[in-house]
Amino acid sequence: EAWSCQQPNLKMLAHADWEIKNHRNENIKYSCVTNASRWLPKLESLYEVEVERDESIEGKDRRNMRRLLLWAYSDTLEGWARCGMDKSARKAYDCMVKIEELSDEDVADVERIQTTPLDFDEERNEFSSEPSESASRYQDWIVQPNLKLFDEMDEFLHPEYPIYPNSQSYTSTIMVLSRSRAANAPETAHNLLNKMLKLYDSGNWFKNRPNLVAFNSVISAYGKSPKFNGAEMAEKVLNLVEELYFSSPQYKYLKPDVVTFNAAVTAWSKSKEEAAVYRAEEIVERMEEHYNSYGSNFLDVKPDMYTYNSLIFAWLRSDLGKTSAENAESILRLLIEKYDNGEKEYLPSQKAFCSVVNAWSKSFVPSDTVDHNSWINNKSLSEAYSVKRAMGLLELMERMYSEGINSLKPDVITYTSVIDSIARSRMTEGSEMAFELLHKMERRFKKSGDKSMKPNVKSYSCVLQSLIHSQRADKHNRANGVLEHMKQMDVEPNSFTYNYVINCAATVQGDEAVKMDAFKIALNAFTNLRSSPDHQTDSFTFAFFLKACCLMPMTKLRSEIATKTFQECCSYGKVNDEVIKRLSRVFMDEPEELRAILKCNKANAKFVTAYDLPKSWSQHAAGKKKSRGRKNL
Question: What global pTM score does this model have?
Answer without folding.
Answer: 0.80
